[in-house]
Write a structure and sequence with these properties.
The protein has 164 residues and is mainly beta. It has 1 helix and 11 strands. Keywords: Cytoplasm, Elongation factor, Hypusine, Initiation factor, Protein biosynthesis, RNA-binding.
Length: 164
């Protein structure tokens, strides 16, 4: 009877729980982050209504998707929890820029990553990265924003600590 299950395979799947954490709606703040319509957003406006006859003050949230800039809105009772995404920023040194738009980035420990493309939604940043790379005068750092399993370049700056 034990042999009946011998050929089965079990796969682990992540719960995704580490990508977000709960926070009471009344504790959210402007310029903070929140999940709106399943997207990680930066809160750009919020207002709280008075307690009504149904007993809960409502919080009206307006946020911009941190990757696309698209505007999302939601209303939540102030005592309820909303999911807040874990958002991190990391600087990488720009090592190479390929013809097809992939960035070769190096971490402080010397490890490289070649899986990020020039940002498509921010053409100004993409153009600035291309222009500075063509000049090849200084060392540049690319700031990468990471959240919900997505990484995207969001800024470029001259690394004054390392001269070429």
């Amino acid at each position: 009877m034990a042999d009946e299950f011998h050929d089965e395979e079990f796969h682990q799947a992540g719960s995704g729980a580490s990508q977000t954490y709960p926070m009471q709606c009344s504790a959210l703040r402007k310029n903070g982050h929140v999940m709106l319509k399943g997207k990680p957003c930066k809160i750009v406006d919020m207002s709280t209504s008075k307690t009504g006859k149904h007993g809960h003050a409502k919080v009206h949230l307006v946020g911009l998707d941190i990757f696309t800039g698209k505007k999302y809105e939601d209303i939540c009772p102030s005592t309820h929890n909303m999911e807040v995404p874990n958002v991190s920023r990391k600087d990488y040194q720009l090592v190479d820029l390929t013809d097809d738009g992939f960035l070769s980035l190096m971490e402080d420990d010397g490890n490289t990553r070649d899986d990020l493309k020039l940002p498509e939604n921010d053409t100004n940043l993409a153009a600035e990265i291309k222009e500075k790379w063509k000049k090849d005068e200084e060392t540049f750092m690319i700031t990468v924003l990471s959240s919900m399993g997505t990484d995207m370049p969001v800024a470029i700056k001259v690394d004054s600590s390392k001269k070429v």
